[in-house]
Structure formats: structure tokens, C-alpha cells
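A quick aside before the break. I want you to see a complete sequence-to-structure record at least once, exactly as it would be stored in a machine-readable document. Don't worry about memorizing anything.
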Amino acid sequence: MNRLNRLSSGFLDAIESRIENRQLTTMAECIELVNQYIHFTGGPILQGKGSRTRKQADTKAKKELQRFNEIDPGQLSDFERQVKRIERGNQNE
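That is the input. The structure line, written in C-alpha cells, reads:
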């Protein structure tokens, strides 16, 4: 987990620097920057799109969110609040 946190923080710092320098970055360039950063830090570059379906990813994410909420049940993120609004059919709350 620490490696992932360092990787995420470092990459976000690099992107922030590009923004401060007013360097326009397309999504394709962003993907390439991610690969370069992972390679630079000694990590393996994944090939292809993976073998998980969106449904599998959604199921995994919901299970992890449930597990997180069991640790701190009163804490809802902005995202979770928005999902609840959408599920209730009231997006403009």
C-alpha cells in the first residue's frame, strides 16, 4: 500500500508541475506519463486492458467501500453522497 501511495503522490506532483507550467496534457500523453513514471520508479508496466470486466470491477469496488464503511460507518465521501442522491432520483440536492 505504501508503494501505491508513493506512486500516486509522485505522479500527481508531476502532473501538478505540468499544470503550473501551463503544459497542456492530453489523456494519451497522461497515459504515457503514467507508464514513464512507473518505469522510472522500477515498477512493471502492465500490458493490455486487463482481464476484469466492468461488472467485476464495480462489484469489487462496492465490497471494498462496504468494508471501509464498516470501519467508519458515519463517514460518507462526496462521491457516496452523490451516488445516494442519484439512487433516490434527486440529483439537484
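Two observations worth writing down. Residues 2-20 form the longest helix (19 residues). Residues 2-40 form one domain. We'll return to this after the break.
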